[in-house]
Amino acid sequence: MxxxxxxxxxxxxRIKEIKQETEMVRTYTFDGSLGAKPGQFVMVWxxxxxxxxxxxxxxxxxxxxxxxxxxxxxxxALAEKQxxxxxxxxxxxxxxxxxxxxxxxxLVAGGYGAAPMYFIAENSVAHGCTLEVIIGARGKEHLLxxxxxxxxxxxxxxxxxxDGSMGYKGYxxxxxxxxxxxxxxxxxxxxxxxxxxxxxVFACGPEMMLKKISEVTAKYKIPSQLSLERxxxxxxxxxxxxVVDPLGIRLCIEGPVVKNDTCVKIEEFGKYHRDDLxxxxxxxxx
Amino acid sequence: MNLQQTILGVPFSNPTxxxxxxxxxxxSSWRYCAENGAGAIxxxxxxxxxxxxxxxxxIIATEHWTLNAVGVPxxxxxxxxxxxxxxxxxxxxxxxxxxxxxxxxxxxxxxxVVATLKPDFIEVNLxxxxxxxxxxxxxxxxxxxxxTILKAVRKEIGPIPxxxxxxxxxxxxxxxxxxxxxxxxDGITAINTxxxxxxxxxxxxxxxxxxxxxxxxxxxxxxxxVRCIAEIFEATGGKVPIIGTGGIYTGEDALxxxxxxxxxxxxxxxxxxxxxxxxxxxxxxxxxxCTNEGVWEIxxxxxxxxxxxxxxxxxxxxxxHAP
Lengths: 286, 323
Description:
The structure holds 2 protein chains of 2 kinds.
Chain A: E1 11-20, E2 25-31, E3 41-46, E4 50-55, E5 58-59, E6 63-69, H1 73-79, E7 86-93, E8 104-110, H2 114-126, E9 130-137, H3 146-151, E10 155-161, E11 168-169, H4 172-182, E12 200-204, H5 207-219, E13 224-227, E14 257-259, H6 260-263, E15 272-274, E16 280-282
Parallel strand pairs in A: 8-9, 8-12, 9-10, 10-11, 12-13
Antiparallel strand pairs in A: 1-2, 1-7, 2-6, 3-4, 3-7, 5-6, 13-14, 15-16
Helix pairs in contact in A: 4-5
Chain B: E1 5-7, E2 10-12, E3 16-18, H1 27-35, E4 40-42, E5 59-61, E6 66-68, H2 77-88, E7 95-99, H3 104-115, E8 121-125, H4 130-135, H5 143-154, E9 162-166, H6 173-182, E10 187-190, E11 194-197, E12 214-217, H7 222-235, E13 242-245, H8 251-260, E14 264-267, H9 270-273, H10 278-293, H11 304-311
Parallel strand pairs in B: 3-4, 3-14, 4-7, 7-8, 8-9, 9-10, 10-13, 13-14
Antiparallel strand pairs in B: 1-2, 5-6, 6-12, 11-12
């Protein structure tokens, strides 16, 4: 399963394995690699139904995985699929998370954002990085990839649930802020041995969570990379549906992973997104 | 070398134009094209009322061709007013408003709205393959029908120059262009997508596009665009400006369409393949070629093939006139 770089047509693959992660979340495994890097997305196609962008949950050069939340017509139909059924994949598209070997990185995941965060974790740990993984969900039954993260070395796992059913009661962004405050970047190189400042923050999850992380990391002067989501049609940078105001950049090309220096210039970030007709839709307040 | 031209009273800093249907949903996307060297931008087709597009997949591409069946979605005149109004506040480059409807009345209705926003040109979409789904045929297949639409639009837009966007899927694009000009078009945009074409996924046996069929664009379209532009230039005596669109990826592609008769060149799928700065790249490539060849005015290239043929005593490009 290899897609020539310049010939990115959808192609169907048979589902090799299905894992029911939570009540609403499933992971599908396909044989073969798309050559995707953590943070990139694929267009997932159900012939005769629809095609939607989804983060690549995993690609190790041998298998490709997607983890999705069954909400909306297309992903609900996708959730009905069985092992051996055909699903189309097109891509990978877009930017990816970038780190340097040996960095101390905080990964913040909200909801099914845990999947691409695990993909980063496995790759970056292999590059000698140490990780603070902060997973948030409404309640413990919605937490994803806990067992997978627990198996990785050099990972400190932090959990936040809105209802307090596991870990910290509240938002994962509160946990991040405490972490950044406990060891500010000024201490780098001259700090106590037990304090190693965070080099970068990576995040994937709901827009309002990302907005908060953008603000918190700017406040503590820590670089961050955030995975933004907008309605997409083509993935090739042609249709213009995923363009953000006022920069005009396309999140399928210049995103989905956007450095916070750019995120802070996106005025619609945390305020509105656009539907398939280009009409503005406000984000609900948290 | 000079890339500037004034066409129908509108100054263009260079001949590249964002083609309709690409990127053009918001003022910020148009500004982004301007920042990346576009000489002008064309909006997506604007309907008199909100219009739903097709489900995905709507666009699929290879290095050779692109198929699209987006279905011409649009949020309607209120959004057009908001986005065009925003762009016109500090208008960095000329704006061409592309309009669409299903009847002379509908075209007139959106033309009247758009005219109040004072675009530099109005481009009349007579040729999207979506018309095949909505009304069984294209307006641009028939000179009389196309003329009726143009007359209806012309009445509503005062002095704003108006371009008719034509389909390559006719045996007589020159005659259609002539009919459009006779009905009040000030210029011609050619060509819209060809086909439609299809692509099938082998394992599922299903057409890939949700709408099954879609208009063909990309590099494969260029030779058809060159031929159509040459025929339009001949049929209209080289007297009306042509916005040449179809498979332009490089400066040399742009120059080829200009030699056929285009004054401006529409850039579409290359925005994906070569990046948003494709406008700047094409301009640089045009300048390099022209400077090497001793061409100092871009306008000297327009219709150059026709002059070369005439110099050899050959009038026109039709097959029967070939030596």
